[in-house]
Design goal:
Layout: H1 2-5, H2 10-24, H3 29-39, H4 45-53, H5 78-88, H6 130-145, E1 149-154, E2 160-173, E3 178-184, E4 189-193, E5 197-202, E6 218-226, H7 231-238, E7 243-248, E8 253-261, H8 265-273, E9 279-283, H9 285-301
């Protein structure tokens, strides 16, 4: 975040830490050097250390004690407060923190209404629902303390199901605007949409797990983009948060490789198909098969 790092950069943090130490006891040149190395960059010693010890920055006395009679503080600027206020308007924030500062006298830098999100489904998770928030925080606690959960949920077909699983991680789908709980039960690694959870409680018993179940891991897909109607720019923006490489083939064709979690394979298929004939998947062969199967299914459904 430039709005924060440019104001209170590594230099500021390094000098502030030195002054905090110097408020407690005289700091030596060696201690100043060590703090600078840890809090800033290796080349920072060339400017920070002589500026402090040579009197250019008159914040340390000759005996190594701090000139200011109070530890340094770094109050937020109004721009920073406006940015924080904008972020706090996101309803997902309250999934992680129950008590959110209101900042009543601060105008947000932007509001959710100012942001237009494209290529996202409209039926995202109910982040403002108290039951959803309670389930989410219980999952976070179980992940932190590593205990299993007894979960009752609705399946994709609307049926009620129950399971006991050990949470492995939470994943967020930007396309679906939903959180998914990834966890291991007695047989396998499973996925439950947090929004479909009906009830949840800590499991008091012992969960017997196979011990050899692993996450699906990483995978890659390679496709060619025909750069019409700004297709390349739209593709790169769409996959901006994925690790990827792009290579120019000729005047209007590009090869793009996107790396993703294999658990997100179905979502990746949907994302790529949303670009229509401007994108052609070339590998790997099993991913090409998934594209082919989905196109056939859509054709048979008349979509």
């Amino acid at each position: 975040m430039m709005v924060f790092s440019e104001l209170y950069s590594a230099y500021y943090n390094a000098v502030a830490e030195i002054l905090r130490k110097a408020s407690d006891h005289p700091v030596s040149r060696r201690e100043i050097t060590d703090i600078t190395q840890k809090a800033a960059f290796s080349e920072s010693m060339l400017s920070i250390v002589p500026a402090l010890t040579g009197g250019k920055w008159q914040v340390l006395r000759e005996d190594g004690t701090a000139v200011p009679d109070h530890p340094p503080t770094m109050p937020l600027t109004m721009l920073q407060k406006r940015w924080i206020k904008a972020i706090l308007l996101d309803p997902r924030i309250r999934l992680f923190e129950e008590e959110i500062p209101e900042l009543p006298d601060v105008e947000p830098l932007f509001t959710p209404e100012d942001v237009t999100v494209v290529d996202r489904y409209a039926d995202g998770d109910p982040y403002e629902d108290e039951h959803y928030r309670r389930h989410f925080r219980l999952i976070l606690n179980a992940l932190k303390l590593k205990y299993p959960l007894n979960v009752e949920y609705r399946t994709g077909k609307g049926r009620t199901a129950r399971t006991v699983l050990m949470p492995e991680r939470l994943e967020y789908s930007e396309k679906d605007d939903k959180f998914r709980l990834i966890g291991e039960d007695e047989r396998r690694l499973g996925v439950i949409n947090v929004g479909r959870i009906i009830s949840m409680r800590p499991f008091a018993g012992v969960l017997e797990r196979p011990g050899h179940v692993k996450a699906a891991g990483k995978a890659s897909v390679v496709f060619e983009v025909r750069d019409e109607r700004n297709a390349l720019e739209r593709v790169l923006m769409h996959f901006a948060h994925f690790e990827k490489e792009a290579e120019k083939l000729d005047g209007e064709h590009y090869r793009v490789t996107v790396h993703y979690d294999r658990d997100d394979e179905t979502e990746m298929v949907i994302r790529i198909l949303s670009f229509g004939p401007l994108v052609r998947v070339t590998g790997p062969e099993d991913f090409v098969g998934l594209i082919r199967e989905r196109l056939i299914r859509q054709k048979n459904l008349g979509l």
